[in-house]
Design a protein that fits this description.
This protein has helices at about 25-30, 40-55, 55-60, 100-115, and strands spanning about 10-20, 35, 40, 70-80, 85-95, 125-135, 140. The chain is of the alpha+beta class. A five-stranded antiparallel β-sheet has the order 4-5-1-6-7. It is elongated and about 55 Å long.
Length: about 150
């Protein structure tokens, strides 16, 4: 792991996004069912899974520091384009960034959506997982719209 002992404690936050593209017929079925499948409520389950994953990132990614997150918020929304957008926002006061925690939370939430919906179709596609913004540390970052 990188030695962060000499770094200043600052407020650090990150926002990541993952997408799951649904076939049109699956999106229709899910909307009619209130996004509940035989396994249970899709979005609520994905939010819990993403939160757990963000908190355990250091157990999944070898060189990540164990962090005591002060905030972890996941949201799931399905737009008219039949794409579920999952966002994960995390924050803490610490010596190292939380980008990996946000990315891990969004990723595991997307995997959970897939697992909850795969009985309806294996044509689901987990799409981009990307960092949208981060603050704190050496430099802040905000993804520009043209960067995708």
């Amino acid at each position: 792991m990188v030695d962060v002992g000499a770094k200043a404690v600052t407020l650090r936050s990150a926002l990541a996004e993952a997408t799951v593209r649904l076939p049109a017929e699956v999106a229709t079925i899910l909307r009619q069912a209130g996004f509940v499948t035989a396994k249970g409520p899709v979005f609520a389950t994905a939010i819990v899974a993403g939160t757990l994953a963000a908190k355990r990132t250091h157990e999944l990614i070898p060189f990540c520091h164990p962090l005591a997150l002060e905030r972890c918020e996941l949201r799931c929304d399905c737009g008219e384009d039949d794409v579920i957008r999952i966002t994960c926002r995390v924050a803490l006061h610490g010596r190292t960034g939380v980008e990996m925690e946000a990315l891990t939370g969004a990723s595991v939430a997307a995997l959970t959506v897939y697992d909850m919906c795969k009985a309806l179709s294996h044509e689901l596609v987990i799409g981009e997982v990307r960092l949208l913004e981060k603050t704190g540390g050496k430099a802040d970052f905000t993804r520009t719209p043209e960067a995708g």
